[in-house]
Amino acid sequence: MTVGPLRNRIRIENRQRILPLDGRRVRGLVGRIMGILGLKGKEISVVLTDDEGIREINRLYLNRDRATNVISFALNEGEFSGLNPEVLGDIVVSVETAARDAASCGAPWEDELAFLLIHGLLHLLGYDHEGKNRAAAARMREEERRVFAALRGYNPPSRT
Length: 160
Description:
Elements: E1 9-14, H1 23-36, E2 43-49, H2 51-62, E3 70-74, E4 87-94, H3 95-105, H4 109-124, H5 134-152
Parallel strand pairs: 1-2, 2-4
Antiparallel strand pairs: 3-4
């Protein structure tokens, strides 16, 4: 029996009405990012929401009562992480915040979405920028820039 190439499974759920989105295009974007990262046979879900939706998720699961741009929930961490290593986890993006951030720096909103998906996916792979380890944060920023440049053909705008 011959087995074909391992395909990534990408689930997109659009819970927002701020901007019209084509789920197939978002799925294709996530697939290209995963390809740049060399991921094969993995599963991921992406939820696109508004500020109210991401604020609720942030409050319920992270005890932060505020909207944010992206949240990742890795399934390869914790006590039961080895049960299904092909499932990377979930990424939640506030389309509303992404559009606002893109407008504030004069970038196309689709590039901001791409950057946030890269950022979220790197978190699912274990990258971290929130701890005290500056070297780890620098590695994550460098990988974000590398993947974005491979995807879009130019470096993303500098971020603070």
